[in-house]
Write a structure and sequence with these properties.
Helix 2 packs antiparallel against helix 3 and helix 3 packs parallel to helix 10. This protein has a domain of 134 residues. It is mainly alpha-helical. It has a three-stranded antiparallel β-sheet. The longest helix has 21 residues. The chain contains ten helices and three strands; from the N terminus they run H-E-E-E-H-H-H-H-H-H-H-H-H.
Length: 194
């Protein structure tokens, strides 16, 4: 352990000497370190098994911002919400989309759709408005009434049969919800996405 630490310090000193004396650059010692590539992050990216992926910190920030845009107590017009969300998702995917890490993408997409159903449910507010809107979306009257009268919260009700059958993925995309999965596929497989 001591040998590896001293070897790391020696390498750092050698690099520091080269940068300061040969290239005449100043080094910020707080932000600089010598470590294996898998332990280093650079501009929000890390390298895992030779593949580039976004860092955990970047992904958590992405989820935090999505949570902010889809917060049920952010009382703005739904059109504005969809617009701001689309701008942010496109920007994030255009920067971090080069990551080859796909595993969390379908999950985040599903979570985002559920949060948008929750926002719609919250904005409908009154029972009769909820019933009227569910009927417009093609839900049977009995199911629309029982779901609208439920005392459960918007997050729970966003996953009921009535809300999912009414506010389908297709309906949400027509409203303006952007798909994170489609954005990722556009970057990695442009020929398959229309």
């Amino acid at each position: 352990m001591v040998k590896s630490m001293s070897a790391g310090k020696r390498v750092m000193a050698s690099i520091q000497r080269f940068l300061e004396h040969k290239l005449r650059l100043t080094i910020n010692k707080k932000k600089s370190k010598v470590a294996p590539v898998r332990e280093c992050g650079f501009l929000g990216f890390v390298f895992v098994n030779g593949k580039i992926r976004w860092s955990e910190k970047s992904f958590l920030e992405f989820k935090r911002r999505l949570r902010l845009f889809t917060g049920r107590s952010w009382f703005v017009l739904m059109e504005y919400r969809y617009k701001k969300l689309a701008e942010y998702v496109r920007g994030w995917m255009n920067y971090y989309g080069i990551s080859e890490y796909y595993r969390p993408i379908p999950g985040i997409d599903e979570w985002l759709r559920r949060r948008m159903r929750m926002c719609c449910w919250k904005q409908w507010r009154y029972t009769r408005t909820k019933v009227r809107n569910l009927l417009k979306l093609g839900i049977y009257k009995k199911e629309a009434i029982s779901t609208s009268l439920s005392r459960r919260g918007p997050w729970h009700l966003s996953r009921t049969m009535a809300t999912q059958a009414g506010m389908t993925n297709k309906w949400l995309s027509k409203q303006g919800l952007i798909s994170v999965k489609e954005q990722w596929l556009k970057i990695h497989y442009p020929a398959t996405v229309r």
